[in-house]
């Protein structure tokens, strides 16, 4: 291999600085090699800096006459020596069989730096023998597929973090498409109604993906505008099933939080609710669907013994009754009676067991709901998915949550947060994987995102978010290059890849629904 430079500084095990030889051209992202104890180690160039020794004050002090400058430039002939290039290279590792090993010693100064060949890099980045791998792009600057370990990506959770418009949902779509070939259930929480486009193939491979897409519109919300836009853009109608929640399926603590947040709960009302809700929902895991009036009657009957005596108790009962009725009738996510319809469409109950046992792409369009109803729906759905998974009847499933900072915020309240946290902590044991997608990493609960063992970064500009990335991404040596990534590029770190990868994301197989509208001059 050709020698292209020499190491001049080696501050740590993880990176070194070298001076390229004259005439050598390098780009950020290029791969180079060096040797440690005779073992060839691959590195990636992450920064190139142009230095100029003329700024040394001791030299500047002599620039007081033209003749002196001329002598330095022409007679001594050191002008080129004053201007030189340094490159910083991050150590990736050395290939040993099907594994990549990290060196335990730093590169020695004055070690030679070598060029690499396409064959060497292809062997270095080849997937391991064990595991199930999917390609989601190409290693930047090469034609080598970027493989990730699908099993580790799913079961050990992942996060996609980027600024708005950086291509998060496009990348998520690529991952969903590639995972769908493994015949696992995928559940997508879609707060913008953009994932419905996956029902429309864009390539031959996309036909197999689109056949697996199942779209669910949540609640009694008018989605006519989305349906019209979908048909105008793709030339076919959007097909979906409208679904809702059985009021009896709400966990007690979630119901308490919602009622207290919306209307306030007295201590007496809380005691009545706790007693009455347990009595009304003591039917096992599968709750029957009855009318709201019948449910409220059961709650009040079951909890009235916990009410204070006399007029105070009667007021507490009537107050709780009004709060329950207001919640169940005004929130569009609930089915209030058997056979309920909306705009002529039947509303079906959610079926968590089906979502976890059918290898389809289940897309839940919650775009028509306000944020509180979105949180409420997600809390109930995740609670039921978790309960089903503990029975060990499910296939390994990936749950994708867009705009995750709205449902598991670092500060503030969300009734869905505890359920997201539970799956993040315990879901792996039951085959539930979590993928959190957000444009504001600093707004996402740090305990939740810390469980994401694979982190994928796209363009990020906000300095607060970059500082946050530096604290949570132990595999990312310097987050500043994230500022310059384009929409097609991403950095993948964590346990699903052997080394941090800078990739160019593959093309989608299905249509991408998150395209930013362009400004067009009216004619």
Automatic annotation (TrEMBL):
It catalyses: ATP + H2O = ADP + phosphate + H(+); Couples ATP hydrolysis with the unwinding of duplex DNA by translocating in the 3'-5' direction. Residues 4-95 form the Helicase HerA barrel domain. Gene3D superfamilies: P-loop containing nucleotide triphosphate hydrolases. The keyword ATP-binding applies. InterPro entries: HerA-like (IPR008571), HerA_barrel_dom (IPR018538), HerA_central (IPR002789), P-loop_NTPase (IPR027417). Keywords: ATP-binding, Nucleotide-binding. It comes from the Archaea. GO terms for molecular function: 3'-5' DNA helicase activity; 5'-3' DNA helicase activity; ATP binding. Residues 134-384 form the Helicase HerA central domain. Belongs to the HerA family. This is ATP-binding protein. It comes from Pyrobaculum arsenaticum.
């Amino acid at each position: 291999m050709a020698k292209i430079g020499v190491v001049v500084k080696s501050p740590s095990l993880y990176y070194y600085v070298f001076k390229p030889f004259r005439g050598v051209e390098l780009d950020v992202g290029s791969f180079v090699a060096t040797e440690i104890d005779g073992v060839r180690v691959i590195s990636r160039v992450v920064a190139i800096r142009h230095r100029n020794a003329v700024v040394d004050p001791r030299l500047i002090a002599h620039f007081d006459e033209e003749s002196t400058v001329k002598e330095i430039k022409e007679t001594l002939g050191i002008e080129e020596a004053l201007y030189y290039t340094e490159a910083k290279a991050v150590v990736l590792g050395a290939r040993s069989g099907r594994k990549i090993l990290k060196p335990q010693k730093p590169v020695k100064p004055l070690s030679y730096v070598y060029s690499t060949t396409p064959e060497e890099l292809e062997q270095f980045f080849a997937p391991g023998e064990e595991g199930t791998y999917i390609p989601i792009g190409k290693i930047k600057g090469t034609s080598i597929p970027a493989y990730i370990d699908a099993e580790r990506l799913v079961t050990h959770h992942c996060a996609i973090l980027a600024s708005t418009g950086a291509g998060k949902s496009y990348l998520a779509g690529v991952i969903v498409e590639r995972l769908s070939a493994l015949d696992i259930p995928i559940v997508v929480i879609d707060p913008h109604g953009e994932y419905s486009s996956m029902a429309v193939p864009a390539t031959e491979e996309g036909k197999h993906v689109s056949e697996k897409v199942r779209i669910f519109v949540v609640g009694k919300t008018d989605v006519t505008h989305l349906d019209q836009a979908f048909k105008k853009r793709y030339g076919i109608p959007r097909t979906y099933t409208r679904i809702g929640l059985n009021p009896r399926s709400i966990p007690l603590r979630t119901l308490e939080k919602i009622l207290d947040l919306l209307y306030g709960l007295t201590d007496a009302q809380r005691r009545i609710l706790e007693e009455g809700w347990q009595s009304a929902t003591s039917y096992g895991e599968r709750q029957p669907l009855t009318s709201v009036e019948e449910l409220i009657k059961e709650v009040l009957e079951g909890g009235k013994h916990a009410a204070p005596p006399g007029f105070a108790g009667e007021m507490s009962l009537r107050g709780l009754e009004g709060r329950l009725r207001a919640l169940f009738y005004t929130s569009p996510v609930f089915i209030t009676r058997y056979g309920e319809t909306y705009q002529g469409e039947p509303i079906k109950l959610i079926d968590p067991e089906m979502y976890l046992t059918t290898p389809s792409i289940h897309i839940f369009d919650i775009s028509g709901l306000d944020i509180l109803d979105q949180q409420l729906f997600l809390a109930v759905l995740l609670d039921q998915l978790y309960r089903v998974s503990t029975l060990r009847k499910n296939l390994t499933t990936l749950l994708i949550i867009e705009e995750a900072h709205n449902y598991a915020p670092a500060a503030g309240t969300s009734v869905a947060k505890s359920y997201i946290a539970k799956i993040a902590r315990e879901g792996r044991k039951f085959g539930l994987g979590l993928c959190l997608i957000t444009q504001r990493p600093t707004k996402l609960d740090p305990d939740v995102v810390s469980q994401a063992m694979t982190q994928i970064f796209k363009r990020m500009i906000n300095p607060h978010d970059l500082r946050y990335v530096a604290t949570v991404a132990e595999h990312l040596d310097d987050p500043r290059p994230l500022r310059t990534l384009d929409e097609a590029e991403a950095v993948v770190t964590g346990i699903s890849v052997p080394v941090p990868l800078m990739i160019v994301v593959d093309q989608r197989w299905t249509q991408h629904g998150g395209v930013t509208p362009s400004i067009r001059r009216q004619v």
